[in-house]
Design a protein that fits this description.
Length: 434
C-alpha cells in the first residue's frame, strides 16, 4: 500500500524558480556534479533500475532499461530529447514542472544526456508554453554561468549543451516518433513501431533517448537521495509519486503530487476537495480521455500503471478528469471525440476515417438525429479501427466511445428516444468541458 511521506519530486525553494541559488540550497546539481566527477554511466543506470522508476509520459516503460538500451547501442552517435510536448486535454503537470522546477529538469536532462553519451540534447517544448520557455532559458543561462552547462563542465573536460526546441503544437507531435519527425523538419506523423523504436532509430536515424519532463525531474532526486529513499513511497511495481493533473468537477482543480497507488477517491477528496455543489460523481477518466472511464463505484481503485490496467483502464500521464451527475455523457464524449478527430494527423486511414466517423455519429446522436443503428455502427467501427494506427490515437478515440456506450448506454438511448439532448446544460451549450 502507498505510504504518504514527504514528496519525492516537488521541493520547496526560495526565490524565483529560475534562480539557481534556491535550487542549490536544496541539493540541486549535486547529482550532476557526481555524474561528472565520479559516477560511471553504468552506476547511474543501476541506481535507476533499483529505483524502479517508470516513464511518466504515459506508457510507464522502465527508465533504467531504456537508458541501458541507448548506452549499449552499437551506433556511437546518439541523441537525447526531453519530451515537453504536452497537449492532451486535462493534462498540465509537465507545464507546472517546467514553470516551477526548471533547474531540476535541466539537471535531469544533463544527467540523461551524459549517461547515454548524447551528441546533442534538446528540450522539445509545447509552443504555447511561453512563460515556461522563458523560465527555462533564464535557468539555463544561470546554470551556464555556474559552469554546469557548456564547455569543460566543472573543469572535467566534458562539453555539454542543452537546446530548447519550439514544438509543433499538436497532440500527436507528443508521440515520440512524430516528435522526432517534426524536429527534422517533416510533418509531425508517427513512424511505424515495431520493429524500430527511438532507442534504435531516433533523431536522424540514430539511437535516441526520449523521456518525459516528470520522468527527468525525478532523476536528480533519485541519485541525490538514493533509490531506497525513492522506493519508500508508492507501490512495489510502481515506486515513487505521480503528478496528477486534476480537472473537471472538483472544487480545487490543479496539479498534485501523490504516492503511486493512491486511490481515485483520495485524489478527488484530499486534493480536489470533492465535487462542487454537493453533486455526485458520474464518471472519472483516471488517465485522461484516451483510456476507458470508470464509475462512482470504482473510486477505491488504486492509481498506478498496473492496478488501472488490471481494472481495464490506464494511468496514462495521470490527467484525471472528474465528471459529475449533471453532465451529459453524450456531450462529454462528443467533446473528446472531436478532439481526437481534430488531432488525428491523417496518416493512417483507419485513424483518419475512424475518428472522423465516430465524431460524426456522436454529433448526430447529441443533436437528436441518432438511431439505434448508429449505436451498433459506432461499436462496430470502434472494434474495426482499435489498435490499427501507427500510434495509439485511434485506440484512444475508440475506447473512449466504447466505454461511454458500455457504461452510459441509457443516456444514448434517451437521446434517440427524445430526439434531443435531455440535459438542460447541454441544450444551453453550457456543458462543462475539462
Ligand atoms: C498521441 C500521443 C501523444 C503523446 N504525447 C506525449 C507528450 O506530450 N509528452 C510525453 O512525454 N509523452 C507523450 N506521449 C508518449 C511518448 O510517445 C513517449 O512514450 C514518452 O515521451 C516517453 O517518455 P517516458 O519513458 O519518460 O514516459 C504521447 C504518446 C501518444 C501516442
Amino acid at each position: 500500500m502507498p505510504t504518504a511521506t514527504e514528496p519525492r519530486l516537488v521541493q520547496q525553494m526560495e526565490g524565483a524558480p529560475w534562480e539557481i541559488e534556491g535550487y542549490l540550497k536544496v541539493g540541486g546539481y549535486e547529482a550532476w556534479k557526481r555524474c561528472v566527477k565520479e559516477l560511471k554511466a553504468t552506476q547511474v543506470i543501476d541506481e535507476l533500475k533499483k529505483s524502479g522508476l517508470r516513464g511518466r509520459g504515459g506508457a510507464g516503460f522502465p527508465t533504467g532499461i531504456k537508458w541501458d538500451k541507448v548506452l549499449n547501442h552499437r551506433v556511437p552517435e546518439r541523441y537525447f530529447v526531453c519530451n515537453a510536448g504536452e497537449h492532451e486535454p486535462g493534462t498540465f503537470k509537465d507545464r507546472h514542472l517546467l514553470k516551477t522546477l526548471p533547474h531540476q529538469l535541466i539537471e535531469g536532462c544533463l544527467i540523461a544526456s551524459r549517461t547515454v553519451n548524447a551528441k546533442a540534447s534538446f528540450i522539445y517544448i509545447n509552443h504555447e508554453y511561453h512563460e515556461e520557455q522563458q523560465n527555462l532559458k533564464k535557468a539555463i543561462a544561470q546554470a551556464r554561468e555556474r559552469g554546469f552547462i557548456g564547455k569543460n563542465v566543472l573543469g572535467s573536460g566534458i562539453d555539454i549543451e542543452l537546446e530548447i526546441f519550439d514544438g509543433h503544437g499538436s497532440y500527436v507531435a507528443g508521440e515520440e516518433t512524430a516528435m522526432l519527425e517534426s524536429m527534422q523538419g517533416r510533418p509531425a506523423m508517427p513512424r511505424q513501431k515495431p520493429p524500430f523504436y527511438p532507442t534504435d532509430f531516433g533523431l536522424y536515424g540514430k539511437p535516441t533517448l526520449v523521456n518525459n519532463v516528470e520522468t527527468l525531474c525525478n532523476i536528480p532526486r533519485i541519485l541525490y537521495k538514493g533509490s531506497s529513499w525513492f522506493t519508500q513511497v508508492g507501490t512495489e511495481k510502481c515506486p515513487g509519486t505521480m503528478m496528477f493533473s486534476l480537472s473537471g468537477a472538483v472544487n480545487r482543480p490543479g496539479v498534485y503530487e501523490m504516492p503511486m497507488g493512491v486511490t481515485i477517491r483520495e485524489v478527488i477528496q484530499q486534493c480536489g476537495g470533492g465535487v462542487p455543489n454537493g453533486r455526485k460523481i458520474k464518471a472519472v477518466f483516471p488517465g485522461g480521455p484516451a483510456f476507458p472511464m470508470v464509475t462512482a463505484d470504482q473510486l477505491d481503485l488504486m492509481m498506478d500503471f498496473d492496478s488501472l490496467k488490471k481494472a481495464g483502464t490506464g494511468l496514462g500521464s495521470a490527467g484525471m478528469i472528474v465528471v459529475d451527475e449533471a453532465t451529459c455523457m453524450v456531450a462529454k464524449t462528443l467533446h473528446f471525440s472531436n478532439f481526437f478527430k481534430n488531432e488525428s494527423c491523417g496518416q493512417c486511414p483507419p485513424c483518419r476515417m475512424g475518428t472522423m466517423n465516430l465524431a460524426a455519429l456522436m454529433t448526430k446522436i447529441e443533436e437528436g438525429n441518432g438511431t439505434q443503428k448508429d449505436l451498433d455502427s459506432m461499436l462496430q467501427l470502434c472494434g474495426f479501427v482499435k489498435g490499427t494506427g501507427y500510434c495509439t490515437l485511434v485506440t484512444g478515440a475508440s475506447v473512449l466511445v466504447q466505454s461511454s456506450l458500455k457504461l452510459f448506454r441509457h443516456e444514448y438511448e434517451e437521446h434517440i428516444r427524445l430526439q434531443r439532448c435531455p440535459s438542460q446544460e447541454a441544450q444551453a451549450g453550457m456543458v462543462a468541458h475539462s
